[in-house]
Design brief:
Layout (H helix, E strand, L loop, with lengths): L3 E7 L6 H13 L4 E5 L6 H11 L3 E4 L27 H17 L6 E2 L8 H9 L4 E3 L3 E4 L4 E4 L2 E2 L8 H17 L3 E7 L6 H16 L3 E3 L1 H5 L20
Parallel strand pairs: 1-2, 1-9, 1-10, 2-3, 4-5, 8-9
Antiparallel strand pairs: 5-6, 6-7
Length: 246
């Protein structure tokens, strides 16, 4: 079986936009599309850039609704805060999804794919997603096909939310990508834009992608995981321009 490689990018905001654009360029050189995890409360230059990237062949997944950073934290989530969709019953999850869908539509970024904050989705959330017409939910342990109830089992690999043990985390990240690709599996690499500030994790992302590609992994997006047959994608050799800061 041919291995597949999915690279997702979260934490896209005005402070991290240049780092996100840099990663997109690096992935484009490697012919690996990004799956952009987008929170609809972002707008302006961020939404403009995400729209540009989708035109270039990247995918957009709704990434929750109201999980903005805490006042003293740069990440979108912290260990002390419960994941937004991690324990919601179907009714409450549906209310949040209704608001998020409307916000995505206003931004011109409608999508039927979902990735919950911290990769945690309750059973109620999965039920609400089906009711709202979503076809895909990527959580910590797999990619759910919401139209068939099938699951593509594959754990997502990311970095710790602390710099302690960073070298070990980077090594494990690259090793996991190599092992899964060598076995012909689905390689799922999660990147938070905050990780790209430090040279170690940034290089680990590039090394993990390169080693997976070396072992024959094909770069795909999350929607591609569920798509039957060969993948056809819009590509461009031109570098998308970065919107001016507002």
């Amino acid at each position: 079986m041919t291995a597949r490689l999915v690279v997702s990018l979260a934490g896209i905001d005005t402070r991290t936009l240049h780092r996100c654009a840099d990663l997109a360029e690096e992935m484009q050189k490697r012919q690996v599309p990004l799956s952009l995890l987008f929170a609809p409360r972002r707008d302006g230059a961020v939404a403009d850039w995400v729209r540009t990237r989708r035109t270039a062949g990247d995918a957009v997944l709704m990434h929750g609704f109201d999980h903005s950073p805490e006042p003293r934290a740069r990440r979108t989530v912290t260990l002390a805060r419960r994941a937004e969709f991690g324990a919601l019953p179907a009714h409450e999850a549906g209310l949040r999804l209704t608001a998020a869908v409307s916000a995505m539509e206003r931004l011109g970024l409608s999508t039927d794919s979902f990735a919950p904050p911290r990769w945690q989705a309750s059973r109620g959330t999965l039920t609400a997603l089906r009711r709202k017409g979503f076809t895909l939910c990527a959580d910590l342990y797999g990619v759910h096909d919401l139209t068939t109830d099938g699951v593509h089992r594959a754990r997502v690999h990311g970095f710790a939310q602390t710099e302690r043990g960073e070298t070990l985390w980077c090594f494990t990240y690259v090793l996991a990508a190599a092992r899964t690709a060598r076995r012909g599996g689905l390689v799922r690499l999660a990147v938070d834009a905050a990780d790209l500030v430090r040279p170690g994790p940034r290089q680990a992302v590039l090394d993990a992608v390169d080693i997976a590609r070396h072992h024959g992994a094909t770069g795909v997006t999350y929607p591609d995981v569920l798509a039957p047959g060969p993948i056809h994608r819009v590509t461009t050799t031109a570098r998308p321009s970065l919107p001016a800061a507002r």
